[in-house]
Amino acid sequence: MYSIFVTIDVNEADMEAFMQASYGDAEGSVRDEPDCFRFDIHRDVSVQTRFYLYEVYADQAAFERHLETPHFLKWKAEVESMFANEPVILPMATVFPSDSGWCSQKASLLDW
Asked: Is 87 helix (H, G, I), strand (E, B) or coil?
């Protein structure tokens, strides 16, 4: 599995709008993309304007397809001006759970 960890600093005035836009991308990713197995949004407790995204895809090609989905393109258009600086994207390979473990968790992602 292919995963990314993204660090995003947003302008303080845009925090609520950023979160709302990000919910749409996260929900669309796990609902509409069969090869997206995780999309978590976290906020730093020390730096309230810093957000972290953790995403897991079947492979890098699935992530590349994600970048062309309607929900991602909508998110990007809405939030790009909210960034205080360029997001930092760290690509990774998952270790645990196993690939089949990620696949078996997919159904639970749709129970918000």
From this structure: coil
